[in-house]
Design brief:
13% of the residues lie in helices and 42% in strands. It has helices at residues 8-19, 29-54, 67-71, 79-83; strands at residues 111-120, 125-134, 141-151, 161-174, 178-190, 213-227, 230-237, 250-258, 262-271, 279-290, 294-303, 308-318, 322-333, 339-348.
């Protein structure tokens, strides 16, 4: 199987310039410094946004969503996934695979670093973290992601739910069609006492002498590529069944087609823990590249658990060495409408040490 870069669509943008010579090795120090200065600016923007999210002034009103809706299964969402409505279980490569389907990790040849931030204004929730993946050193691909999140933390009457999410992923391709991957996840959740909907209550309180949840869980996924550009993905999350809505057991699957300069995918998800009976979620998304560097994304999501319909969109700027991506959207029909915004910066490192970032180019194993 010929591995793609961080997606076929993104590789079209990131590598076309390399093939036509516009990114060939150059001793011009001014050009090199210009690229670095752009990356530094992008880092500064991300840090400023992260600092704003940590500011008390970022939340002027109490959370207006339900606790379940604001927590959103504890998912960590990256801009590409947000912009496509979450429909990336078949096509979500690069660092997205660490949060969705780990079986997609071997389908790229890359060494990527990412800084990530997301914000839910109505839920008073934010997540800040980072990730690294290596699928270029050997056939065995691996990655690590860590993030810290807070839900309804700055309002005095809020639940003040803090959670730390750490993930270690490994994946391996078998032949040219099937890839398998798994994630060991550590989740630590704590929240305040006497702030739940029932006041001081065993059912809704935090715990005075320890976290609400501190557990190791397991995700496992498979990706099948029967023909070039057509992908099927299936992944189970929290398969160790912690029997807690903070780490719900879910099963998600999708079918996606990556046409090089565009991609489309449709997914479905079943949640077996959060509610009193299983609930479903349907997601559809697509992206198209404009001018080889700018991805434009659009997604739709229907969640039967919250009875909400949402529209999402996103864009970015991707070069051979780095990318900046921004997405956002929210519910247009829901009892408690909620929005989400995400921003990420990725750096594409040359694992061979040659200084030309060839890890971003398609290559054979």
């Amino acid at each position: 199987m010929r591995p793609r870069s961080f997606s076929d669509a993104e590789s079209q943008a990131a590598n076309a310039c390399w093939r036509d010579g516009s990114f060939r090795r150059d001793s011009d120090l001014t050009r090199r410094w210009g690229r670095r200065r752009q990356a530094y600016r992008a880092v500064a923007i991300l840090l400023l946004v992260a600092g704003h999210l940590r500011s008390k002034d970022a939340w002027a009103n109490p959370a207006s969503t339900t606790v379940q809706q604001g927590y959103d299964m504890g998912e960590i969402q990256a801009p590409r996934g947000i912009g496509m409505g979450g429909a990336l279980n078949a096509l979500g490569t690069s660092t997205e695979a660490l949060y969705l389907n780990p079986a997609n990790l071997p389908l790229i040849r890359a060494y990527h670093f990412e800084l990530l931030g997301s914000y839910w204004p109505e839920a008073q929730r934010y997540s800040i973290g980072g990730a690294v993946l290596d699928s270029s050193s050997s056939r065995l691909a691996g990655g690590f992601a860590g993030s810290g999140s807070c839900q309804d933390c700055l309002d005095q009457a809020g639940i003040h739910r803090n959670f730390t999410d750490l993930r270690l992923a490994l994946a391996y391709p078998f032949g040219t069609i099937v890839s398998l991957g798994g994630i060991v996840r550590y989740l630590h959740v704590d929240q305040s006492l006497s702030t739940g909907p029932f006041g001081h209550s065993f059912a809704s309180d935090g715990t005075p002498n320890g976290p609400v949840l501190s557990s190791m869980t397991l995700d496992f996924g498979v990706t099948v590529t029967p023909v070039h550009q057509l992908h099927f993905g299936l992944v189970g999350h929290n398969l160790t069944d912690p029997s807690a809505g903070l780490a719900p057991t879910t099963l998600a699957g999708g079918i996606g087609y990556d046409g090089g300069t565009f991609a489309v995918e449709a997914d479905a998800l079943g949640d077996f823990t959060t509610y009193t009976h299983p609930e479903s979620r349907v997601m559809v998304g697509g992206e198209i590249f404009v001018g080889q560097h700018v991805p434009v994304r659009l997604g739709y999501r229907y969640d039967n658990g919250t009875k909400s319909d949402g529209l999402f969109t996103g864009l970015g700027y991707i070069t051979k060495q780095w990318s900046v991506e921004l997405s956002g959207g929210g519910d247009f029909y829901a009892a408690h409408p909620s929005a989400i915004f995400g921003l990420s910066l990725r750096y594409f490192y040359d694992a061979s040490g040659l200084g030309n970032n060839t890890a971003g180019e398609p290559d054979a194993f």
